[in-house]
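yo

u said u wanted the structure for the complex thing, so here. seqs first:
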Amino acid sequence: MSIYENAVRKPVTVILIFIGVVILGLFSLRYLPIDLYPEIDPPIVSIFTFYEGASAADIETNVTRILEDNLNTVSNLKELTSISKDNTSLVMLEFEWGTNLDEATNDIRDAIGRIESYLPEGVEKPIIFKFSTSMIPIMLLSATADESYPALSKILDEGIVNPLNRIEGVGAVSLSGGPEREIQVIVDPRKLEAYNISVEQIGAVIGQENLNLPAGDLDIGSYTIPIRIEGEFKVSKEIEHLVVGTFNGSPVKIADVATVKDTIAEMTIDERSNGRVGARIVIQKQSGANSVAIAREVKEKLPELMRQLPPDIKIDTIFDTSEFIENSINSLATTVLYAGIFVVLVVLFFLGRWRATFIIILTIPVSLIVSFIYLFVSGNTLNIISLSSLSIAIGMVVDDAIVVLENITRHIEKGSSPREAAIYGTNEVGLAVVATTLTVVAVFFPLTLIQGLSGIMFRQLGMIVTLVVIVSTLAALTLTPMLSSHMLRLMPPRKPGLSKAIFGTIEKWLEKLDRFYERLLKWAVHHKAFVMVGSAIIFIASISLVSVVGTEFIPPADNAHIEATVELPMNLRLEKTQELARQIEQIWQENYPEIEVISTSAGVADESNIFSAFGENGSHIINFNIRLSNSTERDRDIYLIGDLMRKDLSKIPIIKDFSVWPGGRGEMGSGAGNVEVIISGYDLDVTGALSEKIAERMENIEGLRDIDISREESKAAYQLVLDREKLGLHGLTTSAVASAVRNRINGLVATQYREGGDEYNVRVRFDEPFRKSVETIENIRVFNQRGEAVTIGELGHVEEYNAPPSIERRNRQRVITVTGSLYKASISDVVNQIKAAVDDIGIPQGVGVDIGGTAEDQQESFADLGLLLILIILLVYIVMASQFESLRSPFIIMFTLPFAFTGVFLALYITGTTLNLISLIGAVMLVGIVVKNGIVLVDYINLLRDRGLDLNEAVISGGKSRLRPVLMTTLTTILGMLPLAIGIGEGAEIWQPMGVAIIGGLTFSTLLTLVLMPVVYTMLGANRFKREQKRIAKLDKEIEA
Amino acid sequence: MKTVFIVYNQALTERVEHILDKLNIRGYSRWPQVQGRGSINGEPHQGTHTWPALNEAVLTVVEDAKVEELMTLLRRLNDKAEMQGLRAFIWDAEIGI
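structre next:
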C-alpha cells in the first residue's frame, strides 16, 4: 500500500507523528545555542620559540629554518609562514579547511621532537598554540576610576572578574591595562657609591629579610612546641629600616641610600576609555557555549556587582558581540515571519479557500521545525546561516503541497468522494512532486560538499534546505492528502457578500490573465523565429552586464565596531604617545557623535605575552577600539566613518602610519576584504625597496585603503660593547656586567611582599634621573670577586645601531607583503591595476611577486562554485531525465537556465549589488528552483500529447492550464525571498545579494520561459510525430499478410 | 453484437492494441497479468520461477461486421510468432446498458 493511501487510512497516526516531530523540534529549539556564525575554527597552528638574545637573522637561520624544514612534512599543510624577530620565532602552519587539527598538532609535536636537539643551546622549548573562534572575546568592558585607580586591578579582580568567571559557559575573564601595585626601592647611585654598596647587596638583604621559616619543635617538659622565625614584612615601610651594611662602624639603612615607595608599577601601556584612565575586562566563552546567554547574564550581574564597587569606578561596554547577534537573529526571525505571511497571502489569493489555505500553510511549520532537530543533533547553533536557510526554504516548502492539493480539489470537483480524491489525486502528481524535490535536493545537497571557508558557511544551508524540502514533500504526500480527505468537500457557489466580492473579483482577474496568456502563446508558436532570436539577443546582451556588475568576495556588514591602529615614529616615549592618543580621541569624539565608547591603549601590553608576538607593539603604537550606536540609529555606516577617520589621521603630521578597520580586525563576514602583494626574495634590501615602490603605487589606486608593508622599519637601539681583555683584567665576565646593568635599569625583583593573600613585587632599581642617558650606563659600578668597584665606562663603550627588521617567510622563502583593504571597489579591478603597476615598476632578478589575500580566497571559492554549478546542472539533468524517461524533455526545460542568469545579472545591475559569494550561491540555487516551473509545464504538455492532442494545441492548452500553479509556486518562492532581499535590520544585509539574485533570476526566467519554453517544445517536439508514424508502420508490418 | 475474448502473451500487448486501434474498436476491458496454459502445446504462462511469462486478456464487444476482420488480423499476428501464444474466442452478446 502506498504511503499516501496509508496516511489517508490512518489519520491518527499521521497527526501524532507530525505532532511528535513538532514537539521534538520545539524541544531542540529551546536548547539550541545562539551564535552569529557556525563555529569556524581557522585551521592554523602556531609555534613560538623564544631564544633570548638572538637577533632576527640569527633566529631565522638557527631556529625558524630548522623548524620549517621539518614541519613542512606535516600532512594537509597548505601554507607555512614564519616571522623571525629579535628573541622570538613564530612559525604558522595553515592547513586545508576540515583538517583534523588534533592530529595535525600531534604531527607537529612529533616533528618538533625530532629536531629539538638540533636547536641551539639556550633555545626554550617551542610552544604550540592553536587558535579557535572561542578565543575571540564575546564582550569587552572598560572600567574607569578616579580615586580608586591605584587599587583598580585588585578591586576589579575581586569584584568583577571572579564573580563573572563563575557564570556558566564563560571561558575566561581577564583584565588588561589595570595598574599593578609594586613596592619600589629607588636607589640613588651617588649614595651607593658613597657607602660602597651595590644594588645586588640591597636586593639580597631585602630577599633574606622577608622570610618566615619553621625552625623545628622544642620539647619543653611534657609538651612539644613548634618554633618559628617570622621575618616577613608586615607593612611595606619596614623595608626602609633594613640594614644593608656598615659604614665607619655605623649601620647603613635602606632609607639612607634609597626611598621606598608603595606605588603602582611603571606602565608600559596606557589604557583609556573615553579618555579616562582605566582597565579593560575581556570576556571569552567556552567552546560551544551560548554567547547570547552569557552576555545576557553578564549584563544582568553587572549592576549588582557595581553596587559593591567604590562609586568612582564606572564600567562601560566597549563591544558586545551578543547585541549584534541578537539583532541579526531577531531581524532574520522577522524575515521568516514576513515570508510566511506573504506565502499565506499568495495561496489565499489563488485558491480563495480558507480550508485549502490552512492545509497548505500547515506544511510550513512542520517542515521548518525539523531543521531545529538537525541543528541540535549535529551540535550546531542557531545562527545567521541556519536562519537564513529557513528564510530561503519557506517559499519552497509549500510548492509540493500546492501541487497535491490542487489536484485533489480537481478530483473532488469531478465528483469523487474526498477520500478517494485524496488517494488518486496524490497518486497522479506524486511522482512529479518527488521529481521537483529531487531537483532541489540535487542543488542543495552538493552545497555541503564545497571545500574551504565558504564550504563551512554553506554546509548548514545545504543540509537545512535539503532536509526541509524532503520533509515538506513527505508532508505533502501524507499530511496534505490526509487533511484533504477530512477537511475538503465540494464547495457550493459562494453566497453574495464580502468574500464573494473579493474572491470573485480576483477570480475574474485571473481568468483574464489566463486568456491573455493563451493569446500570447498562440502568437508565439506562430512566430518561432522571432521569439528565439529575441531571446538569444536578450541573453547575449545580459552577458555584457557581467563587466558592469562589480565583483567582491563577501559583502561587508555594519556591526557598529571600528578598530584602528596608529603608528608613530619608532622609540617615541609613552608619554608622547599618550598625548597624541588624547588628541585623536578628542577629534573623533567631536566629529562623530555616533561614537559611544572609545577605548584606547597605547604602548606594549606585556613583552613576555604570547599574544604580543602576533602583532606590532611598542611604545609608539596606539590601538583604538570604538563602539558606535546601532546601525539602524545612524545615517553614516562604519565604512564611511572609517574613511573620514582615515582623513583625520592623515592630517596629523607626526603619524607615520595608520590603519582603520571598520567592523574590527579578523572578524569573518564583516570587515572589508583585502589584497595582498607578496614579494619573495632573499635579499632584504632589494625586496624592501620593491615593497616600498609597490606600496607607493597602491596608495594611488582608487578603492584601496590602509596600505601596509609587513616588514617593520628598523629600530634604533643601544648596544654595550665590552672589551674582553679589560673584563679579564678586572676579574669580571660579560654575564656579571650584563646582569648588573639589567638590575639597575630594568630593576631587580628582590622578593614578593605579601598582603591580604596577594603578592606584590619588591623592585630595586636606579632612580629615574639615572636611567635617562647613555652616560649613566657608563657610570654604573660593577663589583668584582675581590669587592672592587669598576665603572662600565672602563670596560667598554655604548654603541648606537639599527636592529635588523623582523624577517617574514612564507613557504620557506623570505617575503614581504604589502596589504591594502578594499573600499567600494571590485577586487578584480584592483588586482588588475596592481598587476599593471607591478609590470610598470619591473621585477628585479631573483624576486617573485604574487597577489593574494582575499583575492586568493575569492578565486578559489569562485572556481569551486563554477565546478559546483556544472555538477549541479548535470545532477539536475540526470534527475529530470530519469523522471521523464527522456533526454529531450529535460533539455527543453534546461532552456530556462540561461535566462535565470540573465535575470540575476539584471537584478544585480539594477539594485547596484555586486557579484559576490552570496549572490553566486543564489545563482547556483536558481538552477534547482527555476527548473521546477519547466517540469510542471513540460510534464503536462507531454500528458496532453499522449492523450492525442496535436502539437500546437497541446502546447497552448497545456500552458494555459499550468499558468496558475506555475505563477503560484513562483510567487510563493519570490515573496518568501523578498524580506531577505530588502534586507531589514542589522546583519541581514549579508543575505541581500542572495535574495536579489534569486528574485531577479526567478522572475525573469519565469516570464521569459512561459513564452520561450512552449516555442522550444513545438520545435523539438515535432520529431515525436515522426517517431509515432515509424512505430505504427512497424506494427503494421507485424499484421501484414 | 459479438463478444471477442482475446488472451495472449504479454509481449504482444502493443500489437493487439494496435489492431484494436486500426479497426476503430474503442471499447474493451483488459486484465493485465493473467496466468494460463495452452490446451495442446506451448509453454505455460504462469509468472513463476519455472514459467516466468504471463498472459493478458482482452474482452471486447464488437459489431458483427468487424469480427471477421479482427480475427484475420489476429490470426496473422499469431502466425508470425506462433510460440508466443495467442487465442481468441467469440460468442454472442446482448445489449445491456
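The helical segments of chain B are 13-22, 64-80. Chain B is about 30% helix and 30% strand.
cya
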